[in-house]
Amino acid sequence: MKNLYKDSVVFVLADMGGGGAQNVSHNVMNYWAANGKNVALITMAPVSEDKFPIHPAITRHVIGGIIPSTNLISRLFNNIKRIIQLRKVLKLYSGYTILSFIAPMNILTILATVGFKCRRVISERNDPAKQSFGKFWDYLRTKLYPCADVVTANSQGALETLSSYVPYSKLGYLPNPLRHSFPHHPVSRDQKIILTVGRLHQQKAHDVLIRAFSHVADKKEDWHLMIVGEGPEREMLTELISQLRLETRITLCGFQENVTEYYKKASIFALPSRYEGTPNVLLEALSYGIPSIASDAIPSIESLIEDKVSGAIIPCNNEREWAFTLLRFIENHNKLDGMAFQARQTAQRYTLDNVIHDWNKYIFPDSFR
Questions:
Q1: Which of 99, 117, 150, 270 gets the most CB atoms within 10 Å of its CB?
Q2: Sheet containing 268-271: which strands, arranged edge to edge?
Q3: How far is CA 54 from the centre of its chain?
Q4: pLDDT tens-digit map of 237-257
C-alpha cells in the first residue's frame, strides 16, 4: 500500500468560524492544497458559517453535531453521536495524518480513530492550564492525549503544561503563521486610533481596555478605541461603554473579514488578554509596524515584544497601568518609528514561509526521512 503520510492530511475542527485556531488552520491548509498536498477538512458546523475561505482543492465534509446539551445524559448522547459521525468520515482516510484542533475535538478525534491506521496529531492553541472546557474535558485531556502520535502547541508555556501528562517525545511546537502577505511599509500612524482585535469574550479582557481608555479619553479627546470581533460579551461591553459615556469614542466593530483595513488605520495596538497561546492578531499588528501593548499573561510574550523597544508589556488586569501606558504611547505616537521597525523585524520570523518547515516536520514526517 502506498504510504500516504507523506502528502495527505485531514483537518478536524468544530467549525471554520472567526477564531484563532480557524485562522491558523485555513492559512496552513490552503498553502498545502495550493502546493499539491492531499487535504481534507471535517467540521461539525456547516459551510454557511465559515468565516475563512477554503481552497477549492480541499475536500470538505460536514458531520453536524452542533447541538446544545441540556444535561449530562444529553451531553453524553450527543458526543457519542459526534464520535460515530466522525468515525464514518475518517474511515475514508486510512493512511492519512489526522490533524485536529482544540480540546473537545482533539478528544473526539482520538476516540473516533481507535483501531484506525492513521497518524493522530492534535493541537492546542492556548495553554491548557488556563483554558478549561470543564472538568470532564480537562480530565479526558490528561487520559487521552498520550494516545496521540504527536501533541502540539503554539507556545512553550502550553508545552510545559502538556508535559505533565504527555511524554516529551510526543510534544511539538507549531508556531502561528501570519495569514497575510507581509506589508511593504509600516502604517503611517496619522489616524488617532487604538485598535484591538479578538472575540468579545472574558479571555480577551476588553473590559480592562475599555476602563483604561476611560481614564485617557478626557485628556485626549481626539482619540478613538476600535474593538474588532464578535462574541458573547457584546451586551455587557455595550453596557459598560454606556455607563462610562464613551459611546462616541469606542466602537464595537463586530467580526470583520478584512481586518487589514483596520490595521492600516491604527496608531496603537492593544492586547490585554487574560490568557492566550501565540496571538495571531498581535503578530499581524507587529507586521504592520504598529507599536503594540500586550498583557504579561501571554506565554513567552517577551519573544514577541521587547519592553520599551518594540512595544510594552503590562500586567494583566492592571487597569491603571494600562491607562498610563496608553497615555504615554499617545503622547509619543509620532516618535515611535524605532518601535515600528523592531515590531516588523519580530513579525518577519512568523511569516508562513518561515514557519511552514515546522508544520511539515510534524505533519509530513516521511518528507524528512
A1: 270
A2: 250-254, 224-228, 193-197, 268-271, 292-295, 311-314
A3: 17
A4: 999 999 999 999 999 999 998
Element (H, E) at 38: strand 38-43
Inter-residue contact 10 to 28 (CB < 8 Å): no
Q: Which residues are within 8 A (CB) of 237 and not within 5 positions of it... i.e. 6 or more apart?
A: 200, 206, 207, 210, 227, 252
Q: What is the pLDDT of residue 285?
A: 92
How many helices and strands in the chain, by DSSP H and E?
Answer: 12, 13
Percent of residues, the chain, with pLDDT higher than 70? 94
Q: Which helix (H) or strand (E) holds 12?
A: strand 8-13
CA nearest neighbour of 15 among 96, 92, 104, 83: 104
Contact 165, 146 (CB under 8 A): yes
Grid cell of 45 as nine digits: 458546523
Q: Tell me the C-alpha distance between 205 and 269, whole Å.
A: 14
Buried/exposed 77-113: b ≥16 CB within 10 Å, e otherwise:
ebbeebbebbbebbeebeebbbbbbbbbbbbbbbbbb
User: Do the beta carbons of residue 224 and residue 194 sit within 8 Å?
Assistant: yes
How much is the pLDDT for 103?
94
pLDDT digits (tens, 9 = 90+) for 180-229: 666 666 666 778 999 999 999 999 999 999 999 999 999 999 999 999 99
pLDDT at 366: 72
Distances (CA, A) of 122 to 143, 201, 328: 14, 24, 42
Predicted confidence (pLDDT) at residue 1 exceeds the cutoff of 50: no
